[in-house]
Amino acid sequence: MASKKTIAAGIGTLMAALASLAAPAYADSAASAEQTSLQIPVGSVGSFPGMTSTDSDTRTKARPTGCDYGTVGDYGSLAWCDHDNGGSWRAIAVCKSPSTGKILYGYGNWTNAYVSQAFCNGDSKVQSAGIETSTKDNT
Known about the structure:
By secondary structure, this protein is an alpha+beta fold. The chain folds into two domains: about 5-50, no CATH class; about 70-135. Helix content is about 20%, strand content about 25%. The protein has helices spanning about 5-20, 30-35, and strands at about 70, 75-80, 90-95, 105, 115-120, 125-135. The longest helix has 18 residues, at about 5-20. It is elongated.
């Protein structure tokens, strides 16, 4: 955090630069351009009180919490979470084909606000359900 003295000096410099913009125009265009240029050092905006970053990547991200999942009939699964915490989740259906015995996986769409649904393909039947969570917003 910048000191009050540094902040006051920065505001004073800014006010002086703004006042120079209101100065009368000079006949010499080079002098006029020199008189109206405003230069603020990089990083100085963050030192002014009340200024905050709008970069969405500054938010602390974590895995979703309060999650649960389950099978639906013999054709798929559902997964949901109470809090996204900046992350996302998707349902997983573990399926088995009765004709081949092959294990197949179905994946639901990533979400951060709703129930995700995963489905078994073809003649396969759901054997179990699962959930995949991420600290990223994959939606």
